[in-house]
Design a protein that fits this description.
Strand content: 5-15%
Distance between the termini: 19 Å
Length: 129
């Protein structure tokens, strides 16, 4: 049932409703960040080349503050290998990218694009409810 208030308490009632809305948005955003980060780690573990420590090394670091929540997905086991695999590299015997290059195994970019779309949908869902 709706709460009735007079003109004297109108400002306080509006302030209370806005604070409650802000709290719900913050909670929903933090949950969306955690959910999308977890899904990203799982997707990268599934799509990464190789079966060694590289594929198993994906993890997410989540930072939360009063007004923000963010996640960084990274490979803790072999962080320098990500760029080399994603973009390809020159082999030890090569003199340039056109001479004997190692092909790229693009596996991070598709997951990133998918996570961005999923996060946008999650945020819109949080705002609409």
């Amino acid at each position: 049932m709706a709460k009735r208030t007079g003109l004297d308490g109108l400002a306080d009632a509006i302030s209370d409703v806005l604070e409650e809305y802000q709290t719900e948005i913050e909670r929903g955003t933090k949950e969306a960040v955690q959910k999308v980060a977890k899904a990203g780690v799982k997707a990268l573990k599934d799509t990464s080349p190789g079966s060694g420590g590289y594929a198993k090394g994906w993890t997410a670091t989540i930072q939360e503050g009063r007004l923000f929540s963010s996640a960084t997905i990274h490979n803790k086991e072999k962080p320098g290998l990500v760029h080399l695999l994603e973009h390809g590299h020159v082999t030890r015997n090569g003199t340039g990218r056109t001479f004997n290059p190692t092909p790229a195994h693009v596996h991070v970019a598709p997951v990133e694009e998918s996570l961005i779309a999923d996060f946008e949908k999650a945020i819109v869902k949080v705002i609409e409810t």
